[in-house]
Amino acid sequence: MTVQVTITPNGRMSLPAEIRKRLGLAGGGALLVEETEDGVILRTVAQSIAYAQALAKKYTGDKAEASVDAFLGRRREESGE
Q1: d(CA 60, CA 35)
Q2: What is the pLDDT of residues 43-52, one digit of tens each?
Q3: What DSSP string runs through 1-18?
């Protein structure tokens, strides 16, 4: 879906109500703004987390040694904790 929104002189813009409802932002909330070569991407925090997890899985697969816990364990061992 593509919609046109207006940005006010002070930089504010309004997302249409139907989009806010679908994103779970009907009562307000936060969006993360990512600037890319192609434009701007708006994501909810939950969408951003899911996107980051998908990227991590793409590069690490199901390798147990690539988990955060494994990384922290190696760091503790290396530091002598």
Answers
A1: 25
A2: 999 999 999 8
A3: -----PBPTTS-B---HH
DSSP-assigned letters across all residues of 23-73 = TT-TT---EEEEEETTEEEEEEHHHHHHHHHHHHHHHHTT-GGGSHHHHHH
pTM as predicted: 0.63
Q: How far apart are CA 54 and CA 60, in angstroms?
A: 10
**Which tokens sit at 9?**
């002189």
The radius of gyration computed from the CA coordinates of the chain, to the nearest angstrom, equals 19
Average pLDDT, the chain: 88
